[in-house]
């Protein structure tokens, strides 16, 4: 039988034609396809500005730079995320700090944020884990009381909604970061973007992604381009952008299929002893980048389940090792076991099932049948 990965891209002939058209054109980078893709992102999300960049990590990094992060500062994020959500703070010479997650949503617990803020805190980086939006009004309220910048890591959450608004719309975050890696909702192969409603922030991000180089104006000739700040080569090419624009036309269908698969999983596993699924509050709609189940270690051996499923060509994954338990963070920032107990409890039982639009109904039933059969032998 075919292997079923936990995630993968869905690319069709329209996508191929869009890329080939750019390859046959005059501009492979810094051309019109980038602006078209950015315009499409603003329409899809409701944000006023979209700045396309090389990947989601670059998006997070440049957002922190645009927020003025530097040595001596601190930023707060969640331990249940990919390392980039904290690394973006460290890249600026600042110190990442972590706040534990909620028991049901596995998103950062906004009730714990206030106690973690110090005089050095400059940014909050909430993560919409697995596609489920955080309680952004609660996060923003904390940020406003302390004068902090909110950088929402929405790399899992394109197409999700919070209180009826698409992620990226409104003023709940000062900047919202996206990823277009192949396992995400749309792909540009590699790519990312920062969304913002603030024009000055958008200008700063565009300069930062181009080495910090811009024209100073003031009567200087057009060829006079100078480096005004220390930026990076964080540009997204026209080739990638063409793929992204084509993929955006299918975003609604992709998210709808993910939600359909999630509904079937929820129905199938609702009564399985020792198995929990991510809570989805009524004011939020997840876009299901991941479908994570949690297996109670008292009833199920997560490692055995993982290995048994892989042996049956169902390539489940674990998302994630809590960032505060990574070797670098333990040695550099003094983090370690016991600091965030709910995150560590989550990690002990987490397992991500196959979740991508090209999964057929038969594939989904196969995952359900095999997992239920394996779990039955644990009891």
Key structural traits:
379 residues; alpha/beta; Aspartate Aminotransferase, domain 2; Aspartate Aminotransferase, domain 1; 2 domains; seven-stranded mixed beta sheet; three-stranded antiparallel beta sheet; globular
CATH architecture of the largest domain: 3-Layer(aba) Sandwich
First-residue to last-residue Cα separation:
27 Å
The tally of structural domains comes to 2
Q: Report the sheet-strand fraction.
A: 15-25%
Gyration radius, in Å: 21 Å
- The number of helical segments is 13
Largest β sheet strand count, sense and barrel closure: 7 strands, mixed
Q: Would you report the number of β strands?
A: 17
Topology-level CATH name of the largest domain: Aspartate Aminotransferase, domain 2
Element string (H = helix, E = strand):
EHHEHEHEHEHEEEEEHEEHHEEEHEHHEH
**CATH homologous superfamily descriptor of the largest domain:** Type I PLP-dependent aspartate aminotransferase-like (Major domain)
Question: What general form does the structure show?
Answer: globular
Derived from helix and strand composition plus strand pairing, the structural class reads alpha/beta
